[in-house]
Amino acid sequence: MVIYEPIPAEHYECVNAIHSEEYEVFREFDGSPRAATWKPIAVRRVRADKRQGFKPSDFPSLGFGPLVMRRTAVDALRDILEANGEVLPLSTDDGVELYVLNARVIDALDEANSTLRRIPGTDRIMWIKKPAFFASAIEGVDLFRLPHRGSSTYVSERFVERVKAAGLRGLDFNEVWSG
Q1: Among 29, 49, 56, 133, which is least packed by CB within 10 angstroms?
Q2: Where are the domains of the chain?
Q3: DSSP letters for 7-71
Q4: pLDDT tens string 80-121
């Protein structure tokens, strides 16, 4: 089993929340259902910096945590997405259909074998440099996040293969663990 962390490919568009306080909503995603009360968050497609290209992405980067996707990605990966989370619509000012994934959360981090940094004076994890996972916790899972605030999204080899087979653009994959 191989686990990857999706990372934004260079020179592709990003998204910003129009109202900065709404980033907190994304940070609080914990896999619990939200569709019944969800109000689409307004986002705008942007360049990461003035020199960067603005190629359309099937996965415009939010800059952390949850995956943002165009309709093309949702359609190509619907079975994996729905089995491992909840696809929620976002609101755009230019009519481009974008969605965010409230992914399944699994407490699968093997902290003893991971390289991580804690918030000084606490047991809370600040960032994970090199994760290790309990294989039994993620067996057969294609997409998940950890219960740590702002966790990355982690994906299986099957997810990576499906993204490539569908010709989806805007994500690279960093292999972070095999077991």
Answers
A1: 49
A2: 2-178
A3: EEPTTB-EEEESSGGGHHHHHT--SS--GGG--PPEEEEE-SSTTS--B--SS-B-SSSS-EEEH
A4: 999 999 999 999 989 999 999 999 999 999 999 999 999 999
